[in-house]
Amino acid sequence: MATVKQLALVANLEKEKEHKLVRQYQQAKQSVFENQQKLASLEKYRIDYMHLIKQKASEGLAAKALIQHQSFVGKLDKACEQQINVINQTTLVAEQRKQQWLAQKTKAQAIHTLMQKLKLKQTQLEAKQEQKLFDELASQSLLKLRTSIT
Which fold has domain 4-119? Predict the structure, then answer.
């Protein structure tokens, strides 16, 4: 059976893996947030651009210029769609990282619990051996006392 020192080493390694995975999860969450911010910026820019087109159209706008503006809005729409796809992908990655981290956390906790149980068992065994030694010494002392009395 594994010793406490061996389990402590394994527990430390598993804890390091857990820390690494939690950092990866946090980075993935940050990526999702940044991509959501990019989408919000794109959408705001699109809305602002649409207002500008409406303003120019009310002042009179050539058909060719209107077509160019509509084409640019189409490109903005496509960019928003692509950004939504990026967000979906980064969200999926973040969820996978979360699951990996939680699984590793459970594994690290299980090893830590096993190590604590082993420590307790070892302490109890040492206490039992110590008590047995004390009992043996006490019985030898009693035996010596009885033999010296007679």
Answer: Helix Hairpins (1.10.287)
pLDDT in tens, 1-53: 568 888 889 999 999 999 999 999 999 999 999 999 999 999 999 999 999 99
Please report the sign of the dihedral spanned by the C-alpha atoms of residue 92, residue 96, residue 102, residue 106: positive
CA angle 130, 134, 140 (to 5 degrees): 145
What are the extents of the domains in the chain?
4-119
Q: How far apart are the C-alpha atoms of 36 and 44, rounded to whole Å? A: 12
* C-alpha–C-alpha distance, residues 54 and 46, integer Å: 12
Helix, strand or coil, per DSSP, at residue 2: coil
